[in-house]
Amino acid sequence: xxxxxxxxxEAKKVRPIVxxxxxxxxxxxxxxxxxxxxxxxxxxxxxxxxxxxACTAVNQFEPVTFSRTxxxxxxxxxxxxxxxxxxxxISAIIDLPEGVSVRANLVxxxxxxxxxxxxxxVEMVTRKVREDSEGNDVIxxxxxxxxx
Amino acid sequence: MREVxxxxxxxxxxxxxxxxxxxxxxxxxxxxxQDAGIEFKKVEALYSGNMYRTNLSGQQILQQIGLxxxxxxxxxxxxxxxxxxxxxxxxxxxxxxxxxxxAVGSEQMGKMGLLGADAARxxxxxxxxxxxxxxxxxxxxxxxxxxxxxxxxxxxxxxVSVKNHKYGYYNPRSQYRVLLSLEDVLNSRMISYPxxxxxxxxxxxxxxxxxxxxxxxxxxxxxxxVKIAASVLTTDPYTDRVFALPxxxxxxxxxxxxxxxxxxxxPEDLDLVELHDCFATAEILHYENLGLxxxxxxxxxxxxxxxxxxxxxxxxxSGGLLSLGHPIGATGVSKICECVWQLRxxxxxxxxxxxxxxxxxxxxxxxxxxxxxxxxxxxx
Lengths: 148, 380
Hints:
The complex is a heterodimer. Chain A has strands at 14-16, 21-22, 32-38, 44-46, 61-65, 69-78, 89-96, 100-106, 121-131, 137-145. Chain A is mostly beta strands. In chain A, strands 1-10-9-6-7-8 form a six-stranded mixed sheet, with no helix packed on it. In chain A, strands 2, 3, 4 and 5 form a four-stranded antiparallel sheet that branches. In chain A, a hairpin with a 5-residue loop joins β9 (121-131) and β10. The longest helix of chain B has 17 residues, at 328-344. In chain B, strands 3-2-4-7-1-8-11-10-9 form a nine-stranded mixed sheet, with helices on both faces. Chain B has 13 helices and eleven strands. The model of chain B has no long low-confidence stretch (mean pLDDT 96). In chain B, α1 packs across α2 and α6 packs across α10.
């Protein structure tokens, strides 16, 4: 908010809802999910890690930037949730081609089973979901049906 | 390791109570002690499972049942809390550390409703934004995964709820004693597709207790000792997708393999299975995870009535979590109590006594990325 007398003079910031969402830093960039791949076993994970939860190798990771497109693996349609959470919505498990799966809301499609197909192509989008206590925009990622 | 016997069981009717949770635990222990024909003074150690009031739960119970100065171990392991307490008690007797021990599980959930809802309201929560990590969504997604793999239908999942409520109706200790038709289940409001309201277990209050002793001494206390032929605890090993979709399957499969090995039997030898049907979808998954049917045939098993009381392998004749209730810390212990009653031929009402029950399996899981799964095999 920028009401007179309440601004600090600093530009309003945006921040990602989770550390593994990397927001664009300059013109032409897109938001991406980032993580690591274990050089010992090849498994990939969202976010930073020291020890591989799949093979226990210590500190043998290389950074990975995940694709913005993937496939719908499984889902549920949530009709009852905690107070304040809008329902119904699709809670989806998305497989990304780098070998990691991510849980996200599937948006821009009416939440009905007949609209969903296992393996359907989906693409990532980002949207502001709220402001934090310091007035920064909090950005989250979602997936939506993609062409093809 | 010594052979271990259950010499006494006790359980209050699951429901909602004005009494304190420690009084509920006391009542369950008193019943179990009476069943074993002993006083609390004879008990050498107490293993107490309670999820929401973890710290000093056992000491709170001692205040109600006797401050005898015995060692207390307080246990928490998500929805496998109570059964993990039983396993700790089992290990103490099996290794010779103690002879007479009590494991108790208790919980008071009142009308707390959807688990995790409070945390979901915190400002930093991602619930409802990055999908749902709450249990209805996780077990529903696991059900949808089964639909994807094997063509399982919502009607097949719903039949689980019809079956378990039917047996819960005949169980005087059950929280919800209602007979439901398939239409009732399918037409109740959707909670998380494909699980409708009646396909989700309730919250509630409850307590259950067991008294264990070495088999060599069991006949001092009871003419019907029940042997713990296997006691297994696993967590989920890494599987692809485990961080996005916690996996109820792999830890159960691993636990089942270990339990069958330990007991020297196979799934074909079971007369009763009490498995963790927190949601109707879960029961179908666990038919396969426990080896009750081949991969992908869980839907057929319920369709053909094989898990009914007169079927090939009766499942959740207590009413299961769906009807009996799921006061978290008490649940795992209650399943073992039910197995003991069935093995002794004491299932309260004839409508739910499994005929000639000799071998029973109790399964409990607490789901997370990592999770916890216990299996106990009980033999008369």
